[in-house]
Amino acid sequence: MSDQTRATDGVTGSRSRILADLHQVWRMRVFEEKVRDLRLAGDAVGSIHLGIGQEAVAVGTAELIGPDDALFATYRGHSWALACGVPPAALFAEVLGRATGTNGGRGGSAHLSAPAHRFFGENSIVGAGAPIAVGAALAGRFDGSGRVAITVFGDGAMNQGAVHEAMNFAAAMNLPVVFVCENNTWSELTPIDEMVRDPHLHRRAAAYGIPGERIDGNDPAIVRDRLGAAVRRAREGGGPTLVEAMTARLVGHYIGDAEQYRRPGELDEARRLEPTVRLAAQLRAAGAPDAEIERAEHDARAETEQAAAEALAAPLADPATAKDHLYV
């Protein structure tokens, strides 16, 4: 863990801030647990990828996204949509193909977006959000918005040509883009350290002449601090930054993944360091009673169940509207 925290030792938060972070992590965690249950029950269909265990990166980034900024996620984007303020009921409705979904039930789990909430969507093409984010940042130069674009992708996407091109273009044009690599060490089903010679992916930033650092992505306070510096740098004209946030995916790459590729002891270690455990330990150290800590999970579960019920009660998307928005 020393490599992950070298530049962020001593970053702490108040008890109220830690409690708020824990609540947000639980909101994301139980939302995805409910999505998994709905998929297994047949209420949701199609390909669904969960980011259970990776929530702290989104929680730490949430308040850094300004009103004119734009965020682009991967197909593992439920937590990022929630971080941008998308209402859980509308998010559930989209996953369930309901007319009240963020995209009228057209996008589903892997292609949803909510531009009104600064969430410009997911993308099932690995790494494809990076060049789109660069385009949004370039547009901000001409429309006077002062927009910062944040693009999130996994460790495997670092080997995609589009990501290299996006970083090079952003560096050459000095664009306000923050490249966030959620490194859960698994490029789908293959360990990243067997795919590259140097698994410290942030070091690639030097080739583009931009800052790059590796951080502990399981603590929202650390993410908020280091990504905050990158966002400020971009907003002040300092150009792009690459942040490699180390985290762990506690579930399979997809629902139904047998996870036979896991290394011995890997999940036990990941569960020891995951965000809910980390934040609960910080709260206990700050003197918070167990009842207060447990309430964060309880409240998140109650909110999630209510939102899921509302979405399930909504009408399915009407097939007759399938061609809406396709033609002028």
TrEMBL record:
Organism: Pseudonocardia xinjiangensis
Presence of keyword Oxidoreductase: yes
The protein's name in its UniProt record: Thiamine pyrophosphate-dependent dehydrogenase E1 component subunit alpha
UniProt domain Dehydrogenase E1 component: residue ranges: 31-318
Listed Pfam families: E1_dh
The protein's required cofactors: thiamine diphosphate
PANTHER family attached to this UniProt entry: PYRUVATE DEHYDROGENASE E1 COMPONENT SUBUNIT ALPHA, PYRUVATE DEHYDROGENASE E1 COMPONENT, ALPHA SUBUNIT BACTERIAL AND ORGANELLAR
Keywords recorded for this protein, A-Z: Oxidoreductase, Thiamine pyrophosphate
Domain of life (superkingdom): Bacteria
InterPro entries membership: DH_E1 (IPR001017), PDH_E1_Alpha_Subunit (IPR050642), THDP-binding (IPR029061)
Matches recorded under Gene3D superfamilies: 3.40.50.970
Keyword Manganese in annotation: no
